[in-house]
Amino acid sequence: NYRHAANVLSIYRSVKRLGIPDSHIILMLSDDMACNPRNPRPATVFNNENENINVYGDDVEVDYRGNEVTVKNFIRVLTGRLPEATPHSKKMMSDETSNILIYMSGHGGEGFLKFQDSEEISDIELADVMEQMWQKRRYNQILFMVDSCQAESMFLKFYSPNILAVASSKVGEDSLSHHMDHSIGVYVIDRFTYYALEFLETVDQNSKKTIQELFKCCPKHKCISTVTYRTDLFPRPINQVLVTEFFGNVRNISWTPDLIEFSFFDSFKTN
Description:
GPI-anchor transamidase activity; signal; three-stranded antiparallel β-sheet; GPI_transamidase; GPI-anchor transamidase; globular; four-stranded mixed β-sheet
């Protein structure tokens, strides 16, 4: 499972590089790779065999780790149903103006994704979570990304508006790892995430690259599995949706031809 942690930490690193602060990120990580006794590089996680970047570096803030990473907590974070005493750092403080990126990686099958190898979230549960978020006005638009076997099955039952979704594999297909670090002894990243990261490294805050380009970043001859996506719930063509709408701290500004009048007054007191 080392590569699943590396996948998530790599996406986390990308969104932080593009300006999203930890206060606007909820990171859930099993967090048993860096200190696992089998890890020959203690307190590190690498996503490439050259080991240039330790994605488990000093500036990583894990919000939910170990036994806290449960289906119940995942659903509560998204729907805002956490106990009042929960620290703000563990809450997703979103509203109807928020663009949300949800990235998931792990072992999956048709209609489910595993949490901690001990429980699963189903496609039906996930679809209902999205609807709760919409009804409670917790998002403006969502980009849902999942890297697992049969990943497409996790978004086929979505029915809420303003959602884009992309998966590393079709129903009936495995999602494959990219390469092994022989000095660590395990595969360190999955194919879809590897090529998504390669694409994201070409994006900066002023980039005009689109979601359509992101969805095409891993053709079948690279991914081996078939990357699939859903756009029917989204109101705009994906060639007009910027990657930075989800991966960067960028606000879209629109011009209006209308004249807006402001009233000003000064108030002062004299002795």
